[in-house]
């Protein structure tokens, strides 16, 4: 995994862990947000936090319960998020 991807993954993992009290060992690239027990309201909040913290536009429609962390990391990288 490239260093930028690793840094971004660590940053997003930290955000999810801190904001939603999800143990970091549960936050894996293949985990869906449903697996992490995040509901639709939490996803709206997550989109807002990611947008603020990473300075990229993330709509609440671009993050769904069945998305994996890996898919969202790809989306963030495509939008130019830096680690």
Automatic annotation (TrEMBL):
Record organism: Actinomadura rubrisoli
Protein name: Acyl carrier protein
Superkingdom to which the source organism belongs: Bacteria
Post-translational modification: 4'-phosphopantetheine is transferred from CoA to a specific serine of apo-ACP by AcpS. This modification is essential for activity because fatty acids are bound in thioester linkage to the sulfhydryl of the prosthetic group.
Pfam families: PP-binding
Assigned GO CC terms: cytoplasm
Domain Carrier span(s) in chain numbering: 6-80
Record keywords: Cytoplasm, Fatty acid biosynthesis, Fatty acid metabolism, Lipid biosynthesis, Lipid metabolism, Phosphopantetheine, Phosphoprotein
């Amino acid at each position: 995994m490239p260093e930028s991807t690793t840094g971004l993954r660590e940053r997003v993992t930290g955000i999810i862990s801190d904001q939603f009290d999800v143990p970091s060992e549960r936050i894996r690239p293949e985990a869906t947000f449903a697996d992490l027990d995040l509901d639709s309201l939490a996803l709206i909040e997550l989109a807002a936090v990611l947008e603020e913290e990473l300075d990229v536009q993330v709509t609440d429609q671009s993050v769904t319960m069945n998305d994996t962390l890996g898919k969202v990391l790809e989306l963030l990288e495509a939008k130019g998020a830096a680690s």
